[in-house]
């Protein structure tokens, strides 16, 4: 799922005109060594935080159908995860970097979800909304300053982008559909096989079998005497 989100972001930024302008879109960590090797104008989309949205976790299982409408599998509900990216622009001059970053900001702020036409793999199969927004102060992801400190690079202007994407549940194949009716086959009885005597039901109180070998009805005895209760008058 993560690589499919990456591909969706890459396609979205490419549609904004970065690709035609010769700007690379990469997903590398912007470390000091990486920055020293960079030569072309680049937009870096670095994934640095992943955590589950536990409040959206479901239960049970859903059915997966084929083109003919037959159930082919059962799948557990998807689990939702938040992916947070640090987006930076790299060019020879700060003005060019700001121009690139502004172009990226305009592209990302214009939509609240990755368009369905840009989704691939399991994201396209699930058909669920992949939410996209500019991560604000309410995000649980680490602060940008902490990220730059961990990378060992110099802090620069960046955008925090958060994507909420579903991870497809585990699928279990279902039995194939029934295509034939019930078939009953009879086999000839062997002549030499001894007939097994039937089991006779019999009550203990009587030895007189009823018709056709079944025990007759049990005779009821006298009704038990009613138990005397305290307060009853003697006759």
From TrEMBL:
Region (Disordered), start-end ranges: 190-235
Basic and acidic residues bias spans: 190-207
InterPro entries named in the record: Pvc16_N
Residue spans of biased composition, Basic residues class: 225-235
Domain Pvc16 N-terminal residue range list: 4-180
Short name of any one Pfam family annotated for the protein: Pvc16_N
Protein name listed in UniProt: DUF4255 domain-containing protein
Species whose genome carries this gene: Streptomyces cinerochromogenes
Lineage: Bacteria, Bacillati, Actinomycetota, Actinomycetes, Kitasatosporales
């Amino acid at each position: 799922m993560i690589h499919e989100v990456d591909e969706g972001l890459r396609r979205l930024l490419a549609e904004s005109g970065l690709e035609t302008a010769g700007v690379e879109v990469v997903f590398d960590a912007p470390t000091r060594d990486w920055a020293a090797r960079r030569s072309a104008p680049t937009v870096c989309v670095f994934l640095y935080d992943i955590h589950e949205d536990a409040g959206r976790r479901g239960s049970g299982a859903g059915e997966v159908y084929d083109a003919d409408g037959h159930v082919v599998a059962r799948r557990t509900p998807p689990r939702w995860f938040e992916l947070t990216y640090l987006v930076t622009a790299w060019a020879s001059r700060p003005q060019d970097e700001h121009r690139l970053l502004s172009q990226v900001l305009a592209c990302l702020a214009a939509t609240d979800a990755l368009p369905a036409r840009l989704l691939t793999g399991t994201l396209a199969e699930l058909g669920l909304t992949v939410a996209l927004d500019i991560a604000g102060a309410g995000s649980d992801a680490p602060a940008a300053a902490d990220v730059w400190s961990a990378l060992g690079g110099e802090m620069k202007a960046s955008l925090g982008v958060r994507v909420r994407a579903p991870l497809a549940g585990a699928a279990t194949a279902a039995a194939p559909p029934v295509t034939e009716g019930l078939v009953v086959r009879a086999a000839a009885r062997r002549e030499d096989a001894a007939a097994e005597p039937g089991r006779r039901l019999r009550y203990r109180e009587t030895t007189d079998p009823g018709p056709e070998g079944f025990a007759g009805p049990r005779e009821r005895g006298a009704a038990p005497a009613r138990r005397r209760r305290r307060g009853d008058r003697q006759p």
